[in-house]
Design brief:
Elements lengths: L4 H30 L6 H30 L3 H23 L2 E3 L3 E4 L3 E4 H29 L4
Antiparallel strand pairs: 1-2, 2-3
């Protein structure tokens, strides 16, 4: 099956976040409405719900386009994405006033403060999760649709 490989790559990349993000949204809404979290977390989840599936799809298309030259495994390629997404998202969030950067940490919505050391641990966990998601879930979808 060689017709439209980039379209299939885009769909494979968008597949996983399209399934997972609504579950995360349910968790966020539960925390906000049931547990009464004091900050507007629904504003935090809307942007990722719009951008992450498209970003994953485009990232998988880039992997397909570069795989013949680089031979980079799909898991490692996916683990690179947080190194690009976190600075870009942090810049946008800072410009919109959602995030405040101080000398001691990051503050979301003027309500939640996270020290930089804890943020580094969370970032490392995100890189590991991205690696596993890309290696096993998106790699599986790529194989099922005959991309690799």
């Amino acid at each position: 099956m060689n017709s439209h490989p980039y379209l299939r790559a885009y769909l494979c990349g968008a597949f996983v976040p399209t399934l997972v993000l609504p579950l995360i949204l349910v968790g966020f809404i539960t925390v906000r409405l049931v547990l009464g979290a004091p900050f507007p977390i629904e504003r935090f989840i809307i942007f990722p719900m719009a951008m992450v599936p498209a970003l994953f799809g485009l990232w998988n298309m880039l992997w397909l386009a570069s795989h013949a030259r680089t031979r980079l495994p799909v898991g490692l390629h996916g683990a690179i994405l947080p190194f690009l997404g976190v600075p870009a998202g942090g810049t946008v969030a800072s410009c919109l006033g959602v995030v405040d950067l101080s000398g001691r940490g990051i503050t979301w919505f003027q309500a939640v403060h996270v020290p930089y050391a804890l943020f580094a641990v969370i970032f490392l966990a995100a890189v590991i999760v991205y690696y596993l998601v890309w290696k096993y879930l998106i790699g599986f979808a790529n194989r099922v649709l005959g991309i690799v």
